Amino acid sequence: EIVLTQSPGTLSLSPGERASLSCRASQSVSATYLAWYQQKPGQAPRLLIYSASRRATGIPDRFRGSASGTDFTLTISRLEPEDFAVYFCQQYGSSPPVYTFGQGTKLEMK
Amino acid sequence: QVQLQESGPGLVKPSGTLSLTCAVSGDSMSGSHWWTWVRQPPGKGLEWIGEISHSGTTNYNPSLWSRVTMSVDKSKNHFSLRLTSVTAADTAVYFCARDSGTYLYYFDYWGQGTLVTVSS
Questions:
Q1: Would you write out chain B's pLDDT as a tens digit for each of its 120 residues?
Q2: Residue of A33, A47, A100 lying closest to B108 (CB–CB)
Q3: What single DSSP character describes residue A82?
């Protein structure tokens, strides 16, 4: 079973700063099947990034995803007030078909 | 615009069966998309429960497979979840979602979620 570990658990930053969120897989995963979501209180998750680095429709270009081996990173270049939320990474494994989420990183305003 | 809407009882007794339905609009449910349930215990992370195709093929989370059944009714444009022998640990917000259908395995549309509490 693949485990996704996100760090840090909480990140305290100010608007205008750069955020870097990490998602590490316990074993090799395909970057093709790695996605990132944003979730605000009382709302459903919102797709930000798929295939590790491709922005979903309507997502601002300040959101960028990258991959290096089993390490995946979501970078938000200049934080806007609406970016403060919880972020989850998600991967798909095919044998058996299973989707796994990381435990989340809370991005809070400093 | 694709929309999903969960419905079902908000309170289920321990050892009972949780039953939810997800109504889909803006999609005929006959294409390559898979239809998924994800849950989130209060204040915690997301857990994938399982998925169903338009033809009724299912994949379930191994940790839940013995208690989960999903079904699809394309004539009503909805799909459903049954979870048996529930305990307090099954208390969560339950989301339905759509897989993108691109074989890239991500969820592009989500319902707003419905809170199900397991309590006597």
A1: 999 999 999 999 999 999 999 999 998 888 889 999 999 999 999 999 999 999 999 999 999 999 999 999 989 999 999 999 999 999 999 999 999 988 889 999 999 999 999 999
A2: A47
A3: G
CA torsion A92-B52-B104-A101 (nearest 10°) is -30
Taking an 8 Å cut-off on Cβ atoms, the answer to whether B104 and A51 are in contact is: yes
Q: How far apart are CA B83 and CA A102, in angstroms?
A: 23
Confirm if B70 and B12 have CB atoms less than 8 A apart: no
CA atoms within 13 A of residue A102's CA, in its CB half-sphere: 30
The closest of B26, B20, B24 to B7, measured between CA atoms, is: B20
Round to whole Å and give the CA distance between A63 and A77: 7
Which chain B residues contact residue A99 at CB under 8 A?
36, 48, 51, 105
Q: What is the pLDDT of residue A66?
A: 97
Separation CA B36–CA A32 (nearest Å): 19
By CB atoms closer than 10 A (0-12, 13-18, 19+), residue B119 is: exposed
**Do β-strands A86-94 and A105-109 pair in parallel, antiparallel, or remain unpaired?**
antiparallel
> Model confidence over A45-84: pLDDT tens digits?
999 999 999 999 999 999 999 999 999 999 999 999 999 9
Q: Which residues contact B81 (CB under 8 A, 6 or more apart)?
A: B18, B19, B20, B21, B22, B37, B49, B50, B68, B69, B70, B94, B96
